[in-house]
Design brief:
The structure holds two protein chains of two kinds. Chain A is mainly alpha-helical. Helix content of chain A is 67%, strand content 1%. Classes of the chains: A mainly alpha, B mainly alpha. Strand 1 of chain A pairs parallel with strand 1 of chain B.
Chain lengths: 195, 205
């Protein structure tokens, strides 16, 4: 049995889409991918620091999540569960390949067919690039547990409760880790930008 | 939400400070913390730094994939998910009977000639690794139950070391006594040392 290809209403719930994905509905899979690829990528690239590895982690995460739907019991939102799977996929990839610090300092989409744009304020762009580089280096220096908790909250845009669900820890521990992560980042950044 | 420990001079729980930065406090709690921060400008400045960090974090864009890269990932996901989706097969009851019988025969042979299993080379089962555990506090009676180290254990066991633990609070035991907690210097010295009960010096009330 397969659904005929059809447009997916924007109001279609994740649970409805998951039911359709389980039945082989490709448009439903595409819609789920479209909804959550960006947040999954933000979490993965913060954890891995490498664009290519982050894409691999996103791919692995979506595949694992959508081929193990029996593990998703609806106790949390699909986004929360997906980010748990993606974060674990990123950490596994990081252990296998080693964290590679090759994060590009150039923001924006990579599209070779586009002409390079003229930066209106090169000094400001350099300042932003420096800050981004310093932030990434400081993030890499955090203990794994703090980094993962901080990234899920800051980049995954998850609430304290959702982060606690993803990591299987208490809300209080989430909050403590976030505080100490910011404290460490602040200290590391101060050391890096010291003249 | 855990509030201040007691007097206004007590340092607030770091969880409260995180919630202040993320605007997660209710009105009353925020007002109390704001009042406390007025008297503690150093902490107020630190929280302003945390706010600036949060704003910078949100403002700086990340490099993101091109449309072609997203399509490649989607295609791989679709192919993998499609391959894993169970398909309907025609009813082949007789095949199931043969396969079931063969599986039963193999199982019977396996049980009859069960090989001896040498488990001596099996790696020890890690209950938790150091990446899984955050030690927030240890009651003196429990400290011997917590082991932090890398298997196999060949070196002295460090319960906690600098950077592994943040001492948030020290509270009296059920008998009203406050345990004696020592801090030692050094990169590998335990951050917190609680003497064993058998060798503990007399506590001072």
């Amino acid at each position: 049995m397969a659904f005929a290809p059809a447009s997916i209403p924007l109001t279609c719930s994740d649970d409805t889409l998951l039911t359709r994905v389980a039945a082989g509905d490709q448009p439903a899979l595409e819609e789920l991918f479209r909804r959550y690829r960006a947040v999954a990528y933000r979490v993965a690239i913060r954890l891995l620091g490498n664009e290519a590895d982050a894409l691999d982690a996103v791919q692995d995460g979506f595949i694992k999540a959508l081929t193990h739907l029996q593990s998703y019991q609806g106790r949390s939102s699909f986004k929360t569960w997906l980010l748990r799977v993606v974060a674990n996929a990123a950490l596994d990839l990081g252990r296998q390949r080693g964290r590679r610090e090759t994060l590009s300092l150039d923001a924006g989409p990579r599209d070779d067919s586009r002409e390079p744009t003229v930066t209106p304020n090169p000094a400001r762009e350099l300042e932003r690039s420096d800050l981004r580089g310093h932030l990434d280096e400081a993030l890499a220096a955090l203990p794994d547990a703090q980094r993962q908790t901080f990234i899920l909250h800051a980049d995954g845009d998850l609430s304290y409760r959702e982060v606690a669900e993803v990591l299987g820890i208490s809300i209080g521990t989430v909050m403590s880790r976030i505080f100490y992560a910011r404290q460490k980042l602040r200290a590391l950044l101060a050391a890096r930008v010291k003249p | 939400m855990t509030e201040f420990a007691g007097t206004e001079s007590d340092y607030p729980n770091p969880r409260l400070l995180a919630a202040w930065v993320d605007d997660q406090l209710d009105v009353a709690a925020r007002a109390r913390l704001d009042a406390w921060l007025l008297d503690h400008p150093d902490v107020a400045e630190e929280l302003q730094d945390h706010l600036r960090l949060k704003q910078d974090w949100n403002r700086l864009p990340l490099p993101h994939p091109s449309a072609a890269e997203w399509q490649r990932v989607l295609t791989n996901v679709q192919q993998s998910v499609l391959a894993a989706t169970p398909r309907r097969r025609p009813r082949t009851w007789w095949w199931r009977g043969i396969i079931g019988g063969a599986a039963g025969l193999l199982l019977a042979l396996g049980l009859w000639s069960r090989p001896t299993v040498d488990n001596s080379a099996e790696p020890p089962i890690a209950v938790a690794t150091d990446a899984d555990v955050d030690i927030l506090s240890i009651a003196e009676a429990d400290h011997r139950a917590v082991v932090v180290g890398h298997l196999p254990l060949r070196e002295p066991i460090v319960l906690v070391s600098t950077g592994d633990v943040q001492v948030e609070n020290i509270e009296p035991d059920s008998d009203g006594m406050v345990p004696r907690v020592l801090w030692e210097e050094g990169p590998t010295a335990p951050m917190v040392v609680a003497p064993l009960a058998s060798s503990a010096p007399p506590r001072t009330p």
